[in-house]
Write a structure and sequence with these properties.
This protein is mainly beta. It is built from 1 helix and 13 strands; from the N terminus they run αβββββββββββββ. A hairpin with a 5-residue loop joins strand 3 and strand 4.
């Protein structure tokens, strides 16, 4: 018998008589444990804390504008005469995760306010805010910030805008950055 045949016969006997024996090592499986983390943060919220109020005024013969700043001052253009009483800029209390920047989006189009007894209207536009409505201008340093909003009220003549109360709504958006 040749050496090669003896070798094959030896291998055959080895595998048949001892099936657990192999010539090469097989790979074994290894397991590892992975970890997952997720963190829920406080949602960005905004609540109106003070309504925008242009106060009391008289339109005069030619009308004009009432300009209400976020700092709560009023100036007039045209023949509008400011009356007695109070006026105030709107304010919103914004809360969320501390250290988060956000963007304020003010109305892009004029907003119409309507006389409560007639169909007469005035418009509000030229919206401004503090902090400003530029990307990332709002910052929740301690998880909260007050945003102040002003605008300009376009007033017609006394015929266009009769005595009474005018009301309306508008939407401001606060977005996480």
């Amino acid at each position: 018998m040749t050496i090669f045949r003896r070798y094959l016969l030896s291998l055959f006997v080895l595998f048949v008589l001892y099936p657990g024996v192999t010539l090469a090592q097989t790979a074994s499986a290894v397991s590892a444990t992975g970890h997952i983390t997720a963190q829920v943060i406080t949602m960005l919220t905004a609540v109106e804390t003070s309504q925008m109020n242009f106060g009391r005024f008289s339109p005069g013969p030619a009308g004009g504008e009432l300009i209400l700043t976020p700092e709560n001052s009023v100036s007039v253009l045209g023949t509008v005469w400011p009356g007695s009483g109070t006026h105030n800029a709107a304010s919103f209390y914004v809360t969320g995760d501390p250290g988060i920047a956000y963007t304020i989006t003010l109305p892009a189009e004029p907003v119409t306010i309507m006389h409560m007894g007639t169909a007469r209207t005035m418009t509000v536009d030229d919206w401004v805010s503090v902090p400003s409505a530029t990307p990332g201008a709002g910052m929740l340093y301690d998880g909260a910030q007050t945003v102040y909003v002003g605008a300009t009220l376009k007033v017609g003549t006394i015929h266009d805008n009769p005595v009474g109360i005018y009301t309306g709504t508008y939407t401001i958006t606060f977005d996480f950055n």
